[in-house]
Please model this.
Amino acid sequence: MLRRSLIFAIIAGCTLATGAYATLPHRLPFAPPTSAELGLAGASATQWDGLRQETIALRNSVREQVKERSGQFAGMLDQTQPDLRGFTHTVQHEVDTTLAQARSLQERKLDFYDSLPPAQQAQVRVAMKAELERAQRLRAAVLTLLQDAP
Model:
């Protein structure tokens, strides 16, 4: 009887914890901070949210392209006469297009930053510093894992 009660309590606890975790706001990994995280409001928040969504869309597009091209490349390697030169030209064109889009987006982000009043620029810099520190911790953790690997 005690054993059943203990198992039931564990299952109930896990269910409650899962439900609580599911209600927490989740952030996309490596996504730019939200306007709320940057302390922006009003028109600045709306403008930033648009730039943020464009950034996420561009990253998702690149991930899909890499996934698709990796599959194509693996299939080509199974062929006796693969058109590696043609494949390379296609990929290079996609890379050039993506880099142009990324540069344009980066310029618009810098223009956005320049348009903010000094107090909001300071808030953004604080948030950017926190993101940089987070990325450095992540990088250090990955390097530690790689160094510890057999």
